[in-house]
Amino acid sequence: MNKFFQIEGVLFALASVILGASFAHRHSTTDPKDYEALQTGLRYLMVHSVAIFFGASEPALQGWIGLAGLSLISLGIFLFSGSLFIVTRIRGTALRYVTPVGGSILILGWIFILWAVMIS
What we know:
Blueprint: H1 3-25, H2 32-55, H3 64-89, H4 98-119
Helix pairs in contact: 1-2, 2-3, 3-4
């Protein structure tokens, strides 16, 4: 069990709920594309929060490959969801180019998780 990743998973999930409530109640947006981007960011943040939390207690993920996978997923979700949240609030920001990088890091993280499970 890796307590660091369990705590991180809980904090990401908490952030997802707080941001979702904040966006719903305080940041009304009229642009449907912005709303869709926010929903995508929140959905990915919550799903990956749960994956990080439960992955932290999976014995197959306690070696360096599994921990690297969890680390990549953490970084990927921070970049992917974080950039979506910022881009919908600040128009014309160059952070929109960070979103696909975050998505690619997420994919790489899941490949590492698969690798760790296959060799365990």
